[in-house]
Specification:
alpha+beta, 3-stranded antiparallel sheet, 27% strand, 4-stranded antiparallel sheet, 2 helices
Length: 113
């Protein structure tokens, strides 16, 4: 009986630690994502986007989040479903590949200011 009580106590401690770790990780992820609210020269490049713009989001969502209008031009010979969007202001040498209305790639063409 005492072994069962000891096991339950250890299990609760592990469960509480796991829960606290999960909450801390979620808070960290939310704070780092919300800190990147503008698309400017200081925007951080990540594996899935730059600043507030993420691969997979619609172009309109990216425009709304970045608060920068973007010009969509058709891709050269790729077809009607694909094009490139360039921010009208903000970082120079940056473009987003857009496929079927969603951002599929971020291209950094140069480090211009």
């Amino acid at each position: 009986m005492t072994q069962l009580i000891q096991w339950l106590r250890n299990y609760r401690v592990k469960l509480v630690l796991l829960l606290l770790g999960t909450v801390a990780a979620c808070l960290y992820a939310l704070s780092s994502a919300s800190a990147q609210t503008t698309l400017n020269e200081q925007a951080k490049v990540t594996i899935d986007g730059i600043g507030p713009v993420r691969v997979g989001m619609t172009l309109q969502a990216a425009v709304n989040l970045a608060n920068i209008p973007m010009t969509l031009k058709p891709g050269a010979g790729v077809g009607d479903n694909c094009g490139y969007a360039n921010p009208e202001t903000g970082p120079k040498g940056l473009e987003f590949m857009v496929t079927e209305g969603r951002i599929t790639r971020v291209d950094i063409l140069s480090n211009q200011k």
